[in-house]
């Protein structure tokens, strides 16, 4: 199996294809607004905050990738520090739905870039980045899997996790 195929499988398993862990689309489909903002203890992150964190890094990478290769400047997402990437928009049901949809969209767009990339594109250093496309997407997929596990745990703590699932 080539690295592109492996990475495409890894990328899909984070969003919508079942593997060793549940894909985020399935995990979030029945999460209510109240469950999304719930925190088990002070200082912990909510499900929604974790999705915002994942979205921040994927959106930043997508914008950097697209616009730097087009030799354009961008107003990419900025964060004072890692903790600020968990910041929520105004807490409304509509904003919760929009955050999920934006994450799904950005994740799919990155997958499309990967799918269209030629072998040499995968290993070319991205302008302004320390790594190539393949290394950045590998890291993002591992980052997603880590936080998906946290989201699953938070949903289990709230009783939102179905007793029987196919994964």
From TrEMBL:
SUPFAM superfamilies documented for this protein: DinB/YfiT-like putative metalloenzymes
Record-linked InterPro entries: DinB-like, DinB/YfiT-like
Pfam families recorded: DinB_2
DinB-like domain residues: 24-151
Transmembrane segments: none
Protein name: DinB family protein
Organism of this sequence: Bacillus salipaludis
